[in-house]
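REQUEST FORM: STRUCTURE PREDICTION
Request ID: SP-0412
Submitted by: Lab K.M.
Chain count: 1
Length (residues): 1429
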Amino acid sequence: MEAMNMELSKANEPSSEVLPFARSYQIEALDKAIKQNTIVFLETGSGKTLIAIMLLRSYAYLLRKPSPYIAVFLVPTVVLVTQQAEAVTMHTDLKVGKYWGEMGVDFWDASTWKEEQEKHEVLVMTPVILLDALRHSFIKLAMIKVVIFDECHNARGKHAYACIMKEFYHHQLHKSELPRIFGMTASPIKAKGSSSTVGCWKEISELENLMHSKVYTCENEDVLAAYIPFSTVKIKLYEHINVPCALHRRLADDLEALATKHKSSITNLALEKSAEIAAFNKLRKLSNAFLFCLNELGLWLALKAAEFLSSLETDIFCWELINAKAETIINRFNIDVINMFATYVPSGSKWLVLANVKANLDAGFITRKVLCLLETLLLYRNHEDLRCIIFVQRVVTAAVLRALLNVVLPELCGWKAEYIAGSNTAWQTHSRKEQNKVVEEFRNGRVNIIVATSVLEEGLDVQSCNLVIRFDPSATVCSFIQSRGRARMPNSDFVIMVKSGDASELSRVENYVNCGKIMRKESLRHASLPCGPTEFDFCDGIFYRVESTGAVVTLSSSVSLIYFYCSRLPSDGYFKPQPRCTINEESRSCTIQLPNSCHIQSVTVQCAIDEDGTCTIPLPNSCPIQSVCLRSLGVQGLRKMLKQLACLEACKKLHENGALTDYLVPDIVGEEALSQEPEEEPYHDERVSYFAPELVGSSCSNSSKMYHCYLIEMEKKFTYDVSVQDIILLVKHEFDLDVASSNFDLEVDRGKIAVHMKYVGRIALTHEQTLLCRRFQMAVFSVLLKNNISTVIETLVRVQKDIDFAHVDYFTLPCSGSLGNSSIINWQCVRSVLFVSKNIRNSHMNCSPSGVSRLVHTNNGLVCSCMLENCLVYTPHNGCMYCVSGFLDNLNGNSNLTLRGGGVISYKNYYKRYGLDLIYEKEALLCGRHLFFVQNCLQRCHQQKQKEPSKASVELPPELCSIIMSPISVSTLYTFSFVPSIMHRVESLLLSTNLRRMITDHHMQNVYVPADKVLEAITAKKCQESFHLESLETLGDSFLKYAVSQELFKTYQNHHEGLLSLKREKVISNAALCKLGCKRRIPGFIRNEPFDLKKWPIPGDTSGKFLLEEAFLSADRKMYISGSQTIKSKRVADAVEALIGAFLSSGGEAAALLFLNWLGIEVDFSVLPYQRHTPACPSMYVNVKNLESMLNYSFRDQSLLVEALTHGSYVLPGIPRCYQRLEFLGDSVLDHLITMHLYFKYPGMSPGLLTDLRSASVNNDCYALSALRAGLHKHILHASHEFHKQLVATIHEFEQLSLEATFGWESETNFPKVLADVIESLAGAIFVDSGYNKEVVFESIRPLLEPLITPETVKIHPVKELNDLCQKYQYHLKKPVKSFENGKAHLTLEVEANSVTHKHTCASTDWKTAKKVAAKALVKALKANISGI
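STATUS: Completed
RESULT:
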C-alpha cells in the first residue's frame, strides 16, 4: 500500500486551524493529520483531544451546513460521549450531536438519522452505533469527512473499531471519497507487551495497517516533560499469608453448605429452565465473590462484601432477569452469609482494624495485601491536599476497600474515600451521573481517594490526581500506561503493589516501564514506511448486501440481527421469541427454527461434501465469495460457521419476504418510525365554529319577501298559573324534513315543556312588516336577556334599516292561532313595539262607548285602560320592568299593604316612605309580575338557577308606571323566555343536517341518517344536554377497530400481530382520526360547550357582536364562521368515531363503510382466501370433535382450530403459526359484536352506561373466566412452565368463585391473559372459516360468555368505581404507592374524605390485581361512610 493513498492532494488539503495555546508537538501532529491518516501516540494528559479538535476546525469549512458532510468522533465508552462533545463545543462553532445506546438509537430509521445529519456537523458516539448505522446504510462512509477514534488501541479482533475499518473503510480503498482517519492512544499496544523490538513493532504495524494510518509520537519524553509531569514509579512489596487454614476451611465449608441449601430451595420452586439457570448463576457468582474476598482481603472485608451485596439499592449482578421468588431466596442466602461471617468478627465501636495489627492478621480479619495498602497511604498522611486513585480489578473490591478506608482514615488523616465502577458490565453500579458527581467531588477536594476499576483508566477526565496505587496488577501495557498517566500533578507517585517473591510480576512491571520507550522508538523508526495491507479472515468477505440501499449484514453480524428480529416479534409474560439452532454434524447441516409468529418457519444450510471429505458451502449471490471451504475449521469452528451461515441465509430470506426492510431492520422498527414521524402541521386547539346558512341572510331588498313558516307548538308537562303559547318561526330557507318535524323537551324548573315543530307553508311579508317583525323580536329579547331600560327604549325608537351584510336572519313571532297566510302571526302583539315611538296612546282614547274602558293616569300621561290590560311597564322609581296582566279593582292607593314583619300600612303611606306621593290614590292598582329569567333549558342536570321572587306578582300604582309595549301578554313573554333554548336546538339540528349533506354528497345519496343522530354524534358531554356522543362513540370505535382489523388481516397475510397492531394504531389512533376529521372540516361542526345565553345571537342584531364570515366547504356547499372554539384533538377523534356510530346505527355496515371511505379510510369487506401453511392432520394436535361440539360450529378448515389454540411457546415444525394473528382479528370482532348487541338491546340507556357495559363485558378477566368455565384451558397447546404454574393457581382460585360470577374482577388473582386470548383467537378462527360472517361468530361464542351482562347486573370495575366516587364527592385520591417485596407487588391506595384518611394496602403477583383489590376495599370503606349509598 503506497503512502500517497493516505494523503489528500495539495489542492484539496485543508489549511491548519491552530489554536493560540497549542503546544509545538500538537501543531506538528496536526500537520501530519491534515496530510495523512494519523494515529497520535502520546501520554495521558498530553492534549490529544485538542489535536482532534484543531483537525475538526481545519475541516469545518467542509462540514458547515447546508453541507451534507459530517465528522464522526468515536469514543469507547458512554461516559466519554458527553465529555468529548463538550470539548468540541467549547473550542469550535460546529453543531455537535451526542449519541449512546440508552437514547434508543437501535430503533431509529433512515429518516431519523437523516435529520440528525442535517442538524449536526459533528456526531459524537460510541463505535457500535456508527457500525450499526453503516451496516444499515443509515450513514454512508462517503458522507463522512473525518473519523476520530479515541483510544484507538481497542481496534482489535471483533471490536467495533476494527469492524468499521474492515467492513467499510478497507472495502472502499479504491474510491477517492474516504474520510480522514485520526486515532488517539496512550499506547498503540493493548496486549501484555513485548520486551523485544520485533514483537513490539509487529503489534504497532498491525494497528497501523488496520487503521490505514501512521503513528505519530514525540521523539523522546523530554518534549512532553516540558508540558506535563511524569509520575515516579515505585514498587511496594507485600508478603502474602493465607487466612488461617482451620478458619478458612470452616468458612469455605459453611459457605458451600449455605449455597447448596439455597440452591435446593430454588430447585423446589420448579422454575423454567432458563430462569433456574439464571438464579443458579447469580448464587454461584455471589458465593465466588465472598470466597474471593475471604482469600484476598480477609474476613472483615468479606463481611463488608456481603453487606454491600445485600443492599436493596445495590444489585450488581443484573445481567439476567431473576424470578421474584428466586430473588427472595438469594437475598436470604446473602443474609445468612452476613450472619455467618459476623459470628467470627468482633463487634462494637472499640474494635479497630489497626488497633492490633498482628492479632488481626493472625485471626484472618485482614490480609497482608490490605495492610500494605493502608501503610502505603499512611506514608502520605502529611501530604498536603492528597488526591489518590487506587486501581482494582473487581467492583466488589472497590466497594469494600472504600468501606475500610472510611473506617480507618477519617480519624487518622481526615480523608474521605469513594469508589467508581463502570456501568457497562454485569455489575450494575454507578450511573454516568453518579460517576461525574464523584469525580467532581474529587476535583474540589471533598473526596480524597477514589477506589476505581478500569473505568478511570480510559474514561473520565481526572486531572487533579497526585498519587496512583495499583492494588491489583495491570493486565496490559495499555492499562499500565493509562493508569500511570492519571497521576498528572507535579511530583506525583505511581505505586505498584507486588507480592513479595513474585518474579514474573516484577518482570512484567519492568517490561511495562520499558515498553513505552520501545513503542516510541519503533514508531519513529518505521514512520517513513507506508501502511501495509491489513489481514482479513476469509469470513470477512461473506455478507449479504441490499443493492437498493447498500445495507449489509455480515457473517459475524447475522446472528445478532436474527436475535434482534426475533426480539421485536410479539411476546407475552410466558415466552420470549428466540431462534433455535439445530446442528446435525452427520449431515453437516444447520437449521435455524424461527418463532411461529414469523411466516418463515425455518432455514437450513448444508455443506456439500467432496470425495476427499472437504465441506463447501454456497454463499449469497451478492457476496463476492461464491462458496467457502471449511476443511481447516475443526468441529467447533464448523458448528460456529454453520450457525452464522444459517443466520445469514435467514436474514436474506427475511429480507426477500419483507420481514427485514431494505435497510435490514425488522419491519416493525420501520413501521414504528413511520408512526412516530411528527405531523407536518401540528394540531391547534383553536378551531372555527360553524353557523347554519339556513338562518343567515344578507339581502337589502325593499320588496316583499317570502318566508318558510314553521309552527312551534309548546306543551307544559306541569301545573303553573302562566300558560305557554305557540310561536311562529319564519326563515328564508326550507329545513330538511327531520328538522321541520323535530320534537324535543325543554328542562325547566317546574318540569318539562314538550316542543313540536311542523311546517305550515310559505308566507309573504311586506318590507314594512319585515322591519316591524325585526323590531318586535329585538325588543322582546332586549327585555328578557338584557333587562336594561335604556337598551330596550333604544331598540323601540330606533328606525329599523335594511342590513346588507351576513347576519342571523329569522323571525320568532307570537302565533294568533289561525293557520291561514300571514294571519297566523299575532300582529296586534307584534305592533306593541310601536307604543312608544308612534304615540299610540293619544290616538286610542274612548275606545269603548260602553264605558268598560276608561282613562287612567300613568307616568306616560292619560291612557285608555285597555292598554294596561296586557302590557310591559317600567317603573322609574326603582328601575324595574314588569309584565302587567290587568287591574286589581278591589285595591287602590288607600288599601292596606301587609308588610313582611306582619305590620299593615296603606300603599300611599308605603310609597311616601320612599319620597313618592300618590296623587291618584283612588286609581285601581295594576297586577304586575316580575320579568321571567331566561335560562338554558337544554341542560340535562340543571345547576342552581336564579329563583323566582318569593312574591311573583306585585301591586303597582298606574301613575308610577310607564308603558313600554302594549298589548303584550304575560304568557307571550313567558313563552319567549324559552325561545333562545328552542332556537339553539334548531341551530344545532341545522348544523347536523349541513354536516350530513356534506358527507352524503360523496356517493351516499341513498344513505339516510336522522339529523338528531348526527347531532348526538357532534355533541360533547360538556354541553350537559340530555344526549351526547359517548354511546355512538363507543359503537363507532368498536366498528372502526373491527373494520380496520379485518382489512389489515386480509391484506397483510404474512404480517405478525405486532405489525398488524401497529398498522391498525396508525389508522384508528386519536391522532390519525383527528387528522382525518380536520381534513374533512368536522371540528367546525362540533358542539363542545354548554349553551351560553350571553353568546346567543339575537336575530337581526346589527351591533357587530356576532359577525359571520363565509366558509366554502366545497364548490356548492358553504357554512358561516361564527367565531372560534377550543377543541382538544381527542374531542375531534371522539366525534369522528361517534359519526361512524351514527351511520352504522342508522344505515348499517354499508353506510358506515361509505362514511369511512369519505373520511379517507379504505376498507373492503370482500372475502379473500386465508393463505398460510397448514398442519397435515389437525386432529393430531387438538380434539377437533370435542371443540366443535363445545363451540357448536363445524370447521371447514380444521387447521384454523389448531392455530387458534397454539401459544407462541409451542414451537413444532408441524404447526406453522401461533394464535396471535387470529387473536388480533377475534379481539376486534368480539368487541364489535358485544357492543352492537348492547347498543341495540338497550336503546334507552344513558350514554355512560353503554361504556360501562362494554368495559364489563369486553375484558381479559371476563373472557378468561369464560374459558375456564368451558374447559378451554385443557386444549391450549403451550410449552411454558410459568403459564402452567399460573394456570394451576388460577384453576384453584376459580373453584372458589361462585358459579354465578360473571365478571373476572370478582377474583383477587390475576387471570393469565392466554385464557382470554384463546377466546378471541377462536372467534377469529370461526370468523375466517365462516367467510367473515360475524353473526355465526356470535352464535358460537355467545354461549361461552353467558350470562351476558345487563344494565341490572353490571358491576363497575373497582378502580373506576373508586375514581367516580372520589370525583362525585370531591374526595382526594392520592397517587398509589408501590413497592416490591418477597416476590410480591405491594400497592397502597389512600383517599382523604372529609378530613378522614382511608388507606388500604394489597399484595399480589402483579400491580394490576393489587390495585383492583385495594380499590375494592376502599370503595367498601367509603360507601360505609356515605349516607344513602
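NOTES: The mean pLDDT is 86.
Reviewed by: T.R.
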